[in-house]
Amino acid sequence: MIVGFRFNYDRPDGECHRANGAGAAGCCNYDMREDGKIQFRVVTRNGATGPNVHESGWTPWLAIG
Q: Is the pLDDT of residue 57 over 70?
């Protein structure tokens, strides 16, 4: 599973990958501006760089700080 994220300020979009295999927990740690906002979506694909099998919609904008 992959969680995509994007910001409402000048920072590139990104993804957090669960690299420990199926059923394992994962964690990503990023520095972000506390006065910014972020959106998330969940993506499933076979491998980190394969085509997306499913993409959820983006969440509403969420305050970071």
A: yes
